[in-house]
């Protein structure tokens, strides 16, 4: 007699079943919204704050946040909200310029070291090691003392601090790509070194550089604001975030909003840039 045995359903081990849908990424959404607001403040500041950031009413100086002045007024009666919105252009443009120069200079060094090899690679990497050994803010301050104050000088000084990391990343990618079969096939086919580099090596090695550049933007915003706080960036009465924090430090007990509001703008922008760049880095892998 054959006995039919009913097979009991086998339960899936814990953790191997279908994944639950993740809830909405609130942090990422908030970061994207904030960066969109910052972009609007950079390109069309008068859309968000139609007032003049340099015009003040002395009779209304050091007014706390209210319905008429959302973020209060400063020591000469200028609306702080208007100044923070218009100051985004100075801070962000300097940071973006610093990252762009750092990517160009670092990419040139990394590409040279990865393609040339030999003694050229050794010399370039020793220069990069020296740059790594010096903290970025100290290197920026040393360059500022030579170049003088100003947004262009700050952008270049901050860019030098990012050259080392960018050069190392691109060099490692170039060394990996240049030994790939398709690159070797293109070389055997008679492609000249310049064409080989621009068409085959560089496009396939630049992907990790995009994620690193996004991370460097957050660091550049912080460095530009720090140098502005020390008085090396845009000079008063220009509305720059770091300089605004510095101008309100003497009135911190009586007018806390002078330092808190631009300080929070810096913190929120740095955190938002980091959050978005980390997501971009995962997708580029």
From TrEMBL:
One of its GO terms (biological process) is transmembrane transport. Keywords: Cell membrane, Membrane, Transmembrane, Transmembrane helix, Transport. Coiled coil: none annotated. InterPro entries: BP-dependent_transpt_permease (IPR050366), MetI-like (IPR000515), MetI-like_sf (IPR035906). It is found in: Cell membrane. The keyword Glycoprotein does not apply. It comes from Pseudonocardia oroxyli. It is a multi-pass membrane protein. It holds the Pfam family BPD_transp_1. This is Peptide/nickel transport system permease protein. Belongs to the binding-protein-dependent transport system permease family. GO terms for cellular component: plasma membrane. The chain crosses the membrane at residues 26-48, 95-120, 127-146, 152-170, 209-234, 254-273. Residues 1-21 are annotated as: Disordered. PROSITE patterns: ABC_TM1 (PS50928).
């Amino acid at each position: 007699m054959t006995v039919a045995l009913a097979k009991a359903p086998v339960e899936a081990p814990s953790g191997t079943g279908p994944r639950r849908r993740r809830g909405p990424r609130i942090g990422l959404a908030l970061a994207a919204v904030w960066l969109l607001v910052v972009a609007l403040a950079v390109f069309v500041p008068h859309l968000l704050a139609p007032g003049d950031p340099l015009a003040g009413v002395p009779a209304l100086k050091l007014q706390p946040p209210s319905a008429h002045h959302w973020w209060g007024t400063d020591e000469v009666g200028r609306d702080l909200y208007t100044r923070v919105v218009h100051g985004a252009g100075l801070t962000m443009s300097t940071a973006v310029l610093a990252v762009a120069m750092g990517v160009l200079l670092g990419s040139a060094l990394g590409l040279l070291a990865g393609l040339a090899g030999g003694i050229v690679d050794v010399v370039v990497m020793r220069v990069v090691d020296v740059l790594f050994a010096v903290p970025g803010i100290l290197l920026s301050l040393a360059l500022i003392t030579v170049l003088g104050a100003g947004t262009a000088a700050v952008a270049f000084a901050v860019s030098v601090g990012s050259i080392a990391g960018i050069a190392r990343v691109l060099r490692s990618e170039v060394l990996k790509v240049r030994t790939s079969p398709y690159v070797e096939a293109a070389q055997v086919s008679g492609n000249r070194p310049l064409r080989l580099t621009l068409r085959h090596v560089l496009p396939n090695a630049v992907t990790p550089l995009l994620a690193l550049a996004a991370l460097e933007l957050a660091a550049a915003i912080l460095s530009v604001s720090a140098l502005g706080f020390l008085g090396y960036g845009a000079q008063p009465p220009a509305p720059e975030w770091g300089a605004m924090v510095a101008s309100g430090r003497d009135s911190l007990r009586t007018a806390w909003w002078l330092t808190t509001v631009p300080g929070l703008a810096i913190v929120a922008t740095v955190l938002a840039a980091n959050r978005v760049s980390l997501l971009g880095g995962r997708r580029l892998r």
